[in-house]
C-alpha cells in the first residue's frame, strides 16, 4: 500500500488491531442482556452507534495515513516511480478519476463500469488493509488448531509437502497449488470456522420474493439489509450431510463437491462482491502452513481449549 514498514512494527497493523479491539459482548453480563433481549430493542438499536464510535477514530487515522500516501504518489515524477517497486497502491490509482460526477447517487449505487473517486480509493485501500490482515491470520490460527487436533491429517499434509516442496524456492504459487489435500484441509477449516461472516451483508436494490427450501416464500423489501447466517449454513445437515459437524477435508473432493449448492461454502462471500483477496488469502494460508510444518510439529496439550 505504498508503505515500507519494518515487519511486526506496522503503524497500519496497529490501526487494524484497534479497529477490531472491541470487547466480546458475550463475556459481559449487561451488554449481552441488552443484545439478547428483544423487548429493549427500542434502546439497544442505538447502542450499535456507540460501538462504531469507539472504532471510528482509528478508521479516520488510517484513512488520513492512506490519503498522505496517495498525495506522495501524486507528486512523484515518472523517474522516481520507475526506480521503486510497483505495488497495490499503483494498481488502485490506475482506477482513480479525479473529476467523477457523484451527485446522482441512485446511478452510483447500480453503476458497474466506473472509475474510483479519491474517497473511494482511500476506502478501498482501507478495506484491503483491514480485510487482508485479521482474517487471514485468523484462518491460519484455526488451521493450526485443526492440525493439532488431527495428527492423522498432519501426516498426510507432511507427505504431500515432501512430494512437492523440496527446497525453499519451491514455496511458490505453482508448487503450493499442487498441494491438493492441503487445499481441501484449508477449505474444511474455513467451513467449520467462518472468520469474516459479519462482512457479507447485502442491501436489496429492489423488492423481491424468494422461494425457500421448505416451499414457503420470503419477501425482502427494497432497502432492507440482510446478513446470511454463515455459521449455521456451514454446518447445515441438509446441505453437508449427517456428518456436517465433523472435520472431513475429503468432502471437498470434486466427486463429493459437484452437486453441492454453490452458496453452501461462504467464508469469502459470493457473487460480484466476493472477497477480492480470496485466492491471495488461500495461498498465504497454505504457504504459511507449509513453512511452519517444515520446522514444527503441532500438538494439543492440557491447556488447549477444544
Automatic annotation (TrEMBL):
<dbReference type="InterPro" id="IPR001128">
    <property type="entry name" value="Cyt_P450"/>
</dbReference>
<dbReference type="InterPro" id="IPR036396">
    <property type="entry name" value="Cyt_P450_sf"/>
</dbReference>
<keyword id="KW-0479">Metal-binding</keyword>
<comment type="similarity">
    <text>Belongs to the cytochrome P450 family.</text>
</comment>
<keyword id="KW-0349">Heme</keyword>
<feature type="binding site" description="axial binding residue">
    <location>
        <position position="275"/>
    </location>
    <ligand>
        <name>heme</name>
    </ligand>
</feature>
<dbReference type="GO" id="GO:0016705">
    <property type="term" value="F:oxidoreductase activity, acting on paired donors, with incorporation or reduction of molecular oxygen"/>
</dbReference>
<comment type="function">
    <text>Cytochromes P450 are a group of heme-thiolate monooxygenases. They oxidize a variety of structurally unrelated compounds, including steroids, fatty acids, and xenobiotics.</text>
</comment>
<dbReference type="GO" id="GO:0020037">
    <property type="term" value="F:heme binding"/>
</dbReference>
<dbReference type="InterPro" id="IPR002401">
    <property type="entry name" value="Cyt_P450_E_grp-I"/>
</dbReference>
<keyword id="KW-0408">Iron</keyword>
<dbReference type="InterPro" id="IPR017972">
    <property type="entry name" value="Cyt_P450_CS"/>
</dbReference>
<protein>
    <submittedName>
        <fullName>Cytochrome P450</fullName>
    </submittedName>
</protein>
<keyword id="KW-0560">Oxidoreductase</keyword>
<dbReference type="Pfam" id="PF00067">
    <property type="entry name" value="p450"/>
</dbReference>
<dbReference type="InterPro" id="IPR050705">
    <property type="entry name" value="Cytochrome_P450_3A"/>
</dbReference>
<keyword id="KW-0503">Monooxygenase</keyword>
<dbReference type="GO" id="GO:0008395">
    <property type="term" value="F:steroid hydroxylase activity"/>
</dbReference>
<dbReference type="GO" id="GO:0005506">
    <property type="term" value="F:iron ion binding"/>
</dbReference>
Amino acid at each position: 500500500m505504498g508503505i515500507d514498514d519494518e515487519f511486526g512494527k506496522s503503524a497500519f497493523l496497529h490501526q487494524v488491531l484497534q479497529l477490531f479491539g472491541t470487547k466480546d459482548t458475550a463475556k459481559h453480563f449487561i451488554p449481552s442482556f441488552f443484545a439478547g433481549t428483544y423487548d429493549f430493542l427500542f434502546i439497544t438499536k442505538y447502542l450499535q452507534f456507540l460501538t462504531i464510535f469507539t472504532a471510528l477514530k482509528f478508521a479516520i487515522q488510517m484513512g488520513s495515513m492512506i490519503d498522505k500516501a496517495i498525495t506522495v504518489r501524486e507528486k512523484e515524477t515518472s523517474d522516481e516511480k520507475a526506480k521503486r517497486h510497483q505495488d497495490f497502491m499503483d494498481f488502485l490509482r490506475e482506477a482513480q478519476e479525479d473529476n467523477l460526477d457523484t451527485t446522482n447517487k441512485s446511478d452510483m449505487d447500480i453503476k458497474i463500469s466506473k472509475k474510483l473517486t479519491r474517497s473511494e480509493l482511500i476506502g478501498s485501500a482501507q478495506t484491503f488493509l483491514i480485510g487482508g490482515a485479521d482474517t487471514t491470520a485468523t484462518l491460519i490460527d484455526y488451521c493450526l488448531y485443526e492440525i493439532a487436533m488431527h495428527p492423522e491429517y498432519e501426516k498426510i499434509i507432511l507427505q504431500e509437502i515432501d512430494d512437492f516442496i523440496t527446497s525453499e524456492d519451491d514455496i511458490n504459487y505453482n508448487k503450493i497449488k499442487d498441494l491438493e489435500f492441503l487445499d481441501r484441509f484449508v477449505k474444511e477449516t474455513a467451513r467449520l470456522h467462518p472468520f469474516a461472516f459479519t462482512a457479507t451483508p447485502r442491501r436489496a436494490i429492489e423488492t423481491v420474493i424468494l422461494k425457500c427450501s421448505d416451499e414457503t416464500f420470503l419477501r425482502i423489501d427494497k432497502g432492507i439489509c440482510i446478513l446470511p447466517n454463515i455459521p449455521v449454513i456451514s454446518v447445515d445437515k441438509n446441505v453437508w450431510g449427517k456428518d456436517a459437524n465433523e472435520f472431513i477435508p475429503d468432502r471437498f473432493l470434486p466427486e463429493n463437491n459437484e452437486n453441492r449448492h454453490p452458496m453452501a461454502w461462504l467464508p469469502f462471500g459470493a457473487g460480484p462482491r466476493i472477497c477480492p483477496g480470496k485466492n491471495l488469502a488461500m495461498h498465504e494460508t497454505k504457504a504459511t502452513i507449509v513453512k511452519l510444518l517444515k520446522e514444527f510439529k503441532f500438538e494439543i496439550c492440557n491447556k488447549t481449549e477444544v
